Amino acid sequence: MKTPVTEMLQVEYPIFAFSHCRDVVAAVTGAGGFGVLGAVAHTPEQLEADLSWIDEQVHGLPYGVDLLMPRKFVGAGSGGMDRASLRDMIPPEHRAFLDDLLDRYGIPRREAAPGSRSPVASGAQAGPGTPGADPGDPGMPTGSANPPGQQRAGLQVDPKSMAPLIDVAFRHPIRLLASALGSPPEWLVQDAHQRGVKVAALAGAVKHARAHAAVGVDLVIAQGTEAGGHTGDVSTLVLVPQVVDAVAPIPVLAAGGIATGRQMAASLALGAAGVWCGSVWLTTRESETPPAVKERMLAASSEDTVRTRSFTGKPCRVLRSEWTNAWEAPDAPAPLPMPLQSMLSDRPRRRVEAVAERPGSPAVDLLSPFIGQVVGQMNAVRPARQVVLDMVEELVDAWMTVDKFLAD
Predict the structure, then answer these.
(1) In degrees to the nearest 10, what's the CA dihedral of 114, 115, 119, 122?
(2) Residue of 224, 179, 173 lying closest to 200 (CA atoms)
(3) Rounded percentage of the chain residues whose pLDDT exceeds 90
(4) What is the pLDDT of residues 92-134, one digit of tens each?
(5) Distance in angstroms (rounded) separating the CA atoms of residues 142 and 168
(6) DSSP string over 20-88
(7) Parallel, antiparallel or unpaired: strands 305-308 and 219-223
């Protein structure tokens, strides 16, 4: 294929795979797509290990790294706050609310989870993976790719915590640095360009896309509300052409509700130069999504998702569960702003995930993985490479169908 994006990044297919799992990133890049590692929940040491592993697997083929760069969060006015100060800002009633929820489902409040292989990185589009995680919590399971004794850091949302990850990323031959939430700082765009690295940013509204263009990004990712993780209110079908017109000639990737070649063909018809996919990789063979979570995804319909602020303080699309129902109840406290809600909810969510793996555990009813509405199409486990190839094949079929309609 030949689009402005394939030429810009020297990639065979303009299929971008956002994933917190390095195995998915390497598999998609190896299949001719473009893998993007969601690194927001990494420590610098973990990111170094994962990127070094990816370098060995892709043999010079292009891949990228994704971080969160929100402009609005608690402490933003002072350049960020230390974790202890932020933790002290969480109201006792919010902690009590979650303790009661955990007690009702038999979840120990602080339980070590030896042998648990996954972070809550069932995050999809811009999902923060393990937001707000505290590496010092003995109840925190490590990721499957983590070296022994090493744990992920949690949500990185301010310049102080983001800078070490950026330094690590720039030590590797990445071709793209993406901002999943917010416009990247101009200094970062300039630094990336000096290193030959392109910069992308996700936009859930036209005003966000224009803000990204103003700081000099190379790609804008128009993400519709169908997407998993952090997402806005406008549908992909409506948003993509608006963003294409607003930021031209900057290439646009379509995101949200895209998992097949037919959806990719529709995206290209809307003016996009490629697609950015997240949810579809969560049920692939390479994904480190925990078994209980993966089973929920495979059984879910598109109507089973909901947008909630109960995970990070910003609207995220997830699978509806007793967790989201509890936060929607009349007596529930209002979710806190980012990153306080992340710091409040991440430890309980990790313990829920660990306990949910036990046969017959009621904790499974609390599982709410980040996932988009396209989950209704995700009903089988496939290799990530096969997902890429199936998308390309179906894209060709869809295009031929449209050509036939026009010819007739």
Answers:
(1) -140
(2) 179
(3) 73
(4) 999 999 999 999 998 987 643 433 333 333 334 333 333 333 3
(5) 20
(6) S-HHHHHHHHHTTSEEEEE-TT--HHHHHHHHHHHHHHHTT--EEEEE---S-STTGGGT---HHHHHT
(7) unpaired
| Cα–Cα distance, 383 to 31 (Å, whole number) | 11
Listing DSSP states for 317-341 in one string gives EEE--HHHHHHHSTTSPPPPPTTHH
- Calculated CA dihedral for residues 203, 343, 337, 87, nearest 10 degrees: -140
* d(C-alpha 163, C-alpha 272), whole Å: 31
> Over the stretch 22-72, which tens digit does the pLDDT of each residue have?
999 999 999 999 999 999 889 999 999 999 999 999 999 999 999 987 554
Could you tell me the residue ranges of all domains in the chain? 1-408
Whether 170 contacts 195, CB under 8 Å: yes
Rg, the chain, Cα only = 20
Residue 194: which residues within 8 A CB-CB, separation 6 or more?
A: none
Q: What are the tokens at 81?
A: 């706050």
Residue 255: both structure tokens together:
């995101």
Tally of CB atoms within 10 A around 139:
18
Q: How far apart are the C-alpha atoms of 313 and 282, rounded to whole Å?
A: 23
Amino acid at site 289: T
Strands (E), 263-354: 274-277, 305-308, 316-319
Helix orientation angle between 291-299 and 340-356, rounded to the nearest 10 degrees: 90
Residues 321 and 304 sit within 8 Å (Cβ to Cβ)? no
Mind listing the pLDDT tens digit for each residue in 279-309? Answer: 999 999 999 999 999 999 999 999 999 999 9
Distance between CA atoms of 79 and 67, rounded to whole angstroms? 17
The SS3 assignment for 176 reads strand
Looking up tokens 């999809």 gives 124
Residue 51 contacts residue 67 (beta carbons within 8 Å): no
- 1-408: which CATH architecture? Alpha-Beta Barrel (3.20)
Neighbours of 280 (CB within 10 A): 30
What pLDDT is recorded for position 64?
Answer: 98
Helix (H) or strand (E) holding 352: helix 340-356
pLDDT computed for residue 161 by the predictor: 64
